[in-house]
Amino acid sequence: MSPVVLEATGLYRFYRAGEEETAALRGVTLRALAGEFIGISGPSGSGKSTLMACLAGLDEPDGGTVRIEGTRLSHRPEGERAALRSRLVGVMFQSGNLIEHLTVRRNIELAQRLAGRYDPAWQAELLAELRMEQRADSRPSRLSGGETARAALAVALATHPAVVLADEPTGELDAQTEREVLDLLRDQTEQGTVVIVASHSAAVAHAADRTVTMLDGEIR
Ligand SMILES: Nc1ncnc2c1ncn2[C@@H]1O[C@H](COP(=O)(O)OP(=O)(O)OP(=O)(O)O)[C@@H](O)[C@H]1O
C-alpha cells in the first residue's frame, strides 16, 4: 500500500463581509497516496479554489489541518508556511506562479533556489519536455496562453515537489496543449508525486485516477 503523502482533515474556511458569512469549506477531508492523480470537480462557487489554496498553504483554514509527508503546513506563521511550501508543493494557479520581470528560465531557477534545490539539468529537461527552449529567455508577458501554461507547469515541477496542485490549469488551452500538460502531470506520479487538479474539464477527469466532487463546501 502506498504511503499517505497529503492528508487534509476537517478543513473549514469562512469568509466574512459585514453581516454576511460564507462557509467556503465545511469539514473537508482528503487523503492522497503517493503517486495518486486526483481530480476535483464541482460547480462554480463550491469551494474548489479555496480548498486548493488551503492545501497549498497559500491560505489558512479556520479549522482543520493540512499535512504533507507528515509535516503540518497549516497554522504556522506565513514565513514558515512559505518555506515549507517551496520545498513540498508545486502550484499552478489561475492567479499565476510566474514572476513578471524574470524570464522563464529565471523563474524556474528562483523556485529551485528558494527550495535549496538548484538543479540546472532538471531545468534543461523541463524546458525541453515542455517545448519551451526557444522561449526560455522570454518574460511571461511575451508568451502565448499555451506557452504561459507550460512555463507555469515548469515552475510548478522545478523542485520535484511531493505534491503538485493545479487549479484550472488547462482552462484556456487547446486540446493538444491540454493533453501535453496532463501527460506531463501524469508522468510525475510515476516517481510518487501526488497530483491534484481542480477543473471543469472532462479531459482532467479522464486523466485522473479518481475524481472527488465538491458541493457547497463539502466533498460529496
Ligand atoms: N476572498 C473571498 N471573499 C469572500 N468570499 C469568497 C472569497 N473567495 C471565495 N469566496 C466565496 O467562497 C465560495 C467558494 O469559492 P471558490 O472560489 O473556492 O469556489 P470554486 O469552486 O473554486 O469556484 P469557480 O469554479 O467559480 O472558480 C464562494 O461562495 C465564493 O463566493
Automatic annotation (TrEMBL):
Q: Where are the transmembrane segments?
A: none
Q: Where is the signal peptide?
A: none
User: Domain named ABC transporter: which ranges?
Assistant: 6-220
* One GO molecular-function entry: ATP binding
Q: Which Gene3D superfamilies match?
A: P-loop containing nucleotide triphosphate hydrolases
Q: Which domain of life is it from?
A: Bacteria
Alphabetically sorted, this entry's keywords are: ATP-binding, Nucleotide-binding
By sequence similarity, the record places it as follows: Belongs to the ABC transporter superfamily.
Which PANTHER family does the record associate with it? IMPORT ATP-BINDING PROTEIN, LIPOPROTEIN-RELEASING SYSTEM ATP-BINDING PROTEIN LOLD
Supply the name of the protein.
Answer: ATP-binding cassette domain-containing protein
* Species of the source: Actinomadura alba
- Lineage of the native species? Bacteria, Bacillati, Actinomycetota, Actinomycetes, Streptosporangiales
